[in-house]
Amino acid sequence: MVSRTFGWFLLAVPVLLAVAGPLIAGPAVSVGVPWQPPDAAHPLGTDVLGRDALTVILTGGLPMIGMTGAALGLAYLVGVPLGLFAAGRGRWADEAVMRSLDLVLAFPSLLVLMVLAATGHRGPGVLVPAVAALQLTAITRVVRAAALAPGCRTAVEALTLQGRPWWRIQLGYVARYVTGPVATDAGTRLGVVLYLLASANFLGLGLPADSPDWAVVIERNSEALYTAPAVVLVPAALLMALCVGTNLVTDRLLAARWVSL
């Protein structure tokens, strides 16, 4: 019970701050000198641009969480149907889908993001689809492997012998069967997507340098880790809580699902 509550707590804190923070805090504008120590007016001090660190942190969660959720959602929206198609339409479909997606593995993720930036393709509108595309191969492989598992294939063969069309079998039965592996993968993949987006922002490929986004704030204030640690450690802790909380909650929900079956 304690572990379940702790997981929800870890997940709720960064999400609630990201959603409610902009409503609570005012605009993130310069209010003093850079890296000013904490005082009564600025409990966490100021950042590299002289902005109140607490205000920056309260307003910076939504861009990062929003881009992470959008990239994950887009990747699974495409990857799950592709995996089901590859598993359900025979060897030719399997080979065509998987060999095509294997081409993506030849390109290092950060190199792809840097090439996009070097050609002038920057910002969330480019970054989110690019990160989603980089995750597509792994997601499709997870779905395909789950759909080809012996327990699933036995039921699929029985349904096929009953005359059910392949698409109905894949959507009606196999899609439900792969829900557990997909949810487990999503909890882990959240950290991968978060890392890619944060790395892109660290390298200046994503959001503008004056964005209050947590990843940008960590990168811009990393030099002040020892003199103004709060402005670096607080957003870093929130990102860590988001990843750990998501995995704990996912594990608990899946465990409860299997117990109820």
Set down the secondary structure blueprint.
Elements: H1 2-24, H2 53-59, H3 61-88, H4 91-102, H5 109-118, H6 124-147, H7 150-161, H8 166-177, H9 179-202, H10 214-220, H11 230-260
Domain ABC transmembrane type-1: 79-252
Keywords: Cell membrane, Membrane, Transmembrane, Transmembrane helix, Transport
GO biological process, one term: transmembrane transport
Describe the protein.
With 261 residues, this protein is mostly helical. It has two domains: 1-60 and 214-261, no CATH class; 61-211, MetI-like fold (Orthogonal Bundle), CATH 1.10.3720. Helix content is 73%, strand content 0%. The chain has helices spanning 2-24, 53-59, 61-88, 91-102, 109-118, 124-147, 150-161, 166-177, 179-202, 214-220, 230-260. Helix 1 (2-24) crosses helix 2 (53-59), helix 1 (2-24) packs across helix 3 (61-88) and helix 9 (179-202) packs antiparallel against helix 11. It starts with a helix and ends with a helix. The mean pLDDT is 83.
Task: Give the key terms.
261 residues; mainly alpha; MetI-like fold; 73% helix; MetI-like_sf; ABC transporter permease
